[in-house]
Specification:
mainly alpha; single chain; 2 helices; elongated
């Protein structure tokens, strides 16, 4: 994720990842069995890491604009 993104593109990616997280959390609540739960938790964690990175990138972009 080293490509240069505009503020608008970052905002859209953040919104997309937040929606992915909402869906994954709903799915995690509906699954049964340890293997399913582990897979759901892994996917949630991956999306959370991505979200955190995008938010940091947006914050650094805002800092650079000041």
């Amino acid at each position: 994720m080293s490509e240069m993104l505009t503020r608008s593109e970052l905002d859209q990616r953040i919104a997309d990842v937040e929606e992915n997280l909402r869906v994954l959390i709903e799915l995690a609540a509906a699954v049964s069995g340890p293997a399913d739960e582990e897979l759901a938790n892994d996917r949630i964690q991956e999306q959370q890491v991505l979200l955190d990175r995008l938010i940091l990138r947006r914050a650094s972009l805002e800092f650079d604009e000041d």
